[in-house]
Amino acid sequence: MSTEKYIDSILSKYQKQGLEVLVQISQCSLAVGAKGIFNTLKERLPDDMSVDYSGCDGACFVAPKIHYEKDIRHYLEGISVTNSADSKVGDYINSQTRIVLENAGTISASNIYGYLGTMGFSALGRALEQSPEEIVDLIEDSGLKGRGGAYFPVSAKWRSALSTNSQERHLVVNAEEGEPGVFKDRHVMESVPFRLIEGALIAAYSTNCTSIRLYVNAEAHLSFNRMQKALDICRSEGFLGSNIMGTDFTIDIEIMKGAGGYVCGEESTLLNTIEGKRREPRLRPPFPTESGLNQQPTIINNVETLCNLPWIVLNGPDQFKKIGDSDTPGTKIISLSGSVRKPGVVELPMGSNLEDLLIKFGDVSNMEDLSGIAIGGPSSGVIPSSEATNLFIGPGFIDGKSVMLGAGGVIALSKETNVLQVVRKLSEYNANESCGKCTPCREGTQRLLEMMGTGSEGTPINWTGLGGLAEVINAASLCGLGQAAGNPVLSYNTYFQ
After folding, report:
1. Which of 43, 45, 283, 459 allows an S-S link to 455, with CB 3.0 to 4.6 Å?
2. Which residues are bridge partners to 332 per DSSP?
């Protein structure tokens, strides 16, 4: 049986019972009563209507939301809810370029049929009909880079692991996402969990991996539960385990909770915690692709990265390269929050303008109403709002100095917000989250806080000394987190002194 016929055979088991109403239940909508609406509709709707749940479509600013095909307003009396077909939602989503978040909020997250009905697992089927090397070549041709913050070419990481001779090879899906102000991976897992599974399977097949581990932030309870259910469904329907989709490909995915702490997002620290060791980074080299989990070659890919794979396999590398920047093709998901009228999750082409993001999607009417913009979390820094017009979404230091996009968090700061206090908070977070292994990070981040003080306005601060210490911390720390811990101070020195 071909993989295409296999998918059809699974879909044929689905018996749709009348009109389906989807309540978008995600981390954002739970805070505004989505679960209660779900329970109420289950009681109110007649037997020929079914109630199910999806994840959030990204328009968090109008939550709670429901998705339905016919008018059911007479069942919604006394319920404050937004229809996903509302123009506010449609304009927001249709203005984006969606690859990873395609169909988020409009297909069920509780069963596999909605995903299969929108070409789900067709990319895996197509990949399984080709050789692993052909898929690696295809991903290399697409120019896909990692979306976890480092933006390392995906195919280069894969080839490094493949070049290491070993009977075992591991894939670890990094869903730690511990940065304050970043919530896009959680949206992906809660809205399109089967896409992540499909992407992970394509990666594992292409690189001859013998195991897959999904490492989820310990506090992302909904994401963990939703992924766990999706994995169980995939096992029962033949998309995980032995002879996947009727082929010779056999592999499973083990899901686990992270050990807690920002540093767990760092690759080698993550591996240590899986092995039951202390949460601290390893010396490199060797790199994980050479000697990772249990000293065997290990590929660590981010959630968003892997979710690009099905689209690329189905549409081809040439189509992917038409989106975004020539050096970094494709899209980037931005977690947009703070002093904006429309907080949410936005997927835009690489190279998009930062000011356009805030005005068009955040609905910021006047950039001068912002005291600054915190970008990329505690490993990055803060810029004045006036700089946004010249900055673009992409890898590396987007200002050429100390501010980087990282995993994609953008927080708008109100005019009343004291930027120095924000920099203190970011620096305090870095100091508290230091694993303590290396002296520059352990001692230096605490010293930064002492030098900045906690005092009142007008207290003299030695910014020259602070800047010098921040540069030393960045230059001498062991891991990528310590090597960016001085960036909040450096950004303040550059733009606000």
Report:
1. 459
2. 348
List the chain residues with pLDDT less than 70. 16-18, 454-458
Q: Which fold has domain 3-90?
A: Glutaredoxin (3.40.30)
CATH number for the domain whose boundaries are 331-414: 3.10.20.600
**Which sequence spans correspond to the domains of the chain?**
3-90, 122-319, 331-414, 423-495
Helix axes 221-236, 193-206, angle to 10 degrees: 60
Q: What is the CATH number of domain 423-495?
A: 1.20.1440.230
- pLDDT, one tens digit per residue, over 326-335 is 999 999 999 9
For the full predicted model, state whether its pTM sits above 0.90: yes
* DSSP string computed for 93-147: HHTS--STTTTTTTS-SSSSHHHHTTTTTHHHHHHHTS-HHHHHHHHHHHT-B-S
pLDDT tens digits, one per residue of 81-97: 999 999 999 999 999 99
